[in-house]
Amino acid sequence: MAGAALMLAVSVTAATVAVAMQPGQPRLTVAGVAQDPCQQQRALPVPARLSGHFEPDSSILLEAGGIYAAPQRPARPVRIQSACAASAERADREWLRAGRVPGATTAQRSMATRALLDLRLAVRPDGAVLAGWRWTDFVIPSSGELQPSRLRVT
After folding, report:
1. Would you give per-residue pLDDT tens digits along the chain (154 residues)?
2. Would residue 21 count as lying in a domain?
3. N or C: which end of the chain has fewer CB within 10 A?
4. Range of the domain at 134
5. Domains contained in the chain, number
6. Is 9 within the bounds of a domain?
7. Are 65 and 55 in contact (CB under 8 A)?
8. Which 3-state string (H, E, C) describes the chain?
């Protein structure tokens, strides 16, 4: 009887370990991209665990503590950061108004707006396109070949 109980315990433990070690869905670490409010066109990866919402027609992300800014950097005074965010929001909205946001429904236009703003953050002022999860680290030249045509359509 003790041998059967030991065998059962080993089987359950082995099954538990096997289930824990099976490959599954990769853990989402970045949920999107936002704009650094005081450094326009600087893309910030948004951690998946962060809860917040974008200002309408803007890449400025608001979270419970205020405006999302670059992590590991000293916080700017609220007044300065608010002025930066207002300027960035204005620039985003003017940029969107200068083109055409596709979509037949409100939901489609909302998704297209978010995608266009993300694309805008991914294109550097010199035309280079950012790549990778650390948006500011490197550019893949072949990725940049189609970017101007994607933006030209709108």
Report:
1. 444 443 434 444 444 444 555 577 777 777 888 998 888 778 888 888 888 899 999 999 998 878 888 666 656 667 888 899 999 999 999 999 999 999 999 999 999 999 999 989 888 777 777 766 554 444 555 555 555 555 555 5
2. no
3. N
4. 30-153
5. 1
6. no
7. no
8. CHHHHHHHHHHHHHHHHHHHHCCCCCCCCEEEEEECCCCCCCEEEEECCCCEEECCCCCCEEECCEECCCCCCCCCCHHHHHHHHHHHHHHHHHHHHCCCCCCCCHHHHHHHHHHHHHHHHHECCCCCEEECCCCCCEECHHHHCCHHHHHHHC
CA distance 109 to 101: 6
Pick the closest to residue 32 from 105, 86, 111, 89 (CA basis): 111
Radius of gyration of the chain (CA): 22
- The length of the chain, given as a count of residues: 154
Single-letter amino acid code for the residue at 108: Q
16 in a structural domain: no
What does the block give as tokens for 25? 């869905």
The answer to whether position 24 is within a domain reads: no
